[in-house]
Design brief:
22% of the residues lie in helices and 43% in strands. The strands form two sheets. A five-stranded antiparallel beta sheet has the order 1-2-3-4-7, covered by helices on one side. It is of the alpha+beta class. It has helices spanning 12-21, 97-111, and strands at residues 25-28, 32-38, 41-47, 52-60, 65-71, 74-80, 83-91. It has one domain (12-115).
């Protein structure tokens, strides 16, 4: 058994409360799903009772390009956006570790540590 597996299932309501206190919009179902939107993109955090935590960060990699298309007498506005999606995964044993993990996620993203 991995040393990262929690000794008992994590409390999803506690994880959700921690995320709310950190400024995330949170939904609790069978897992915890949290979302934060900002000028640098959209970040989603997923956490489960087993202690698995994943960040999915989506950010634009260029300026959107748009144009109008006329088809059958109707005008459509088409906007093309290119995004980069980065997933970071880890695990926790206690709910209290989540704040440290959120800080580490931010650090990894801002410092682009996956490029080293």
């Amino acid at each position: 058994m991995s040393s990262r597996v929690p000794l008992q299932p994590l409390n999803l309501d506690t994880l959700a409360q921690i995320l709310r206190e950190e400024g995330w919009d949170v939904v609790v179902t069978e897992d915890v799903v949290a979302r934060r939107e900002g000028p640098h993109g959209v970040w989603n955090v997923y956490a489960d009772r087993a202690g698995r935590v994943r960040l999915e960060a989506t950010r634009p990699v260029g300026m959107p390009k748009g144009r109008r298309v006329l088809l059958d007498g109707r005008t459509y506005r088409v906007l093309r956006e290119v995004h980069e999606v980065i997933n970071i995964l880890t695990s926790i044993r206690k709910e209290e570790e989540l704040v440290q993990v959120l800080r580490a996620f931010e650090d990894i993203l801002w410092r682009r540590l996956w490029e080293e």
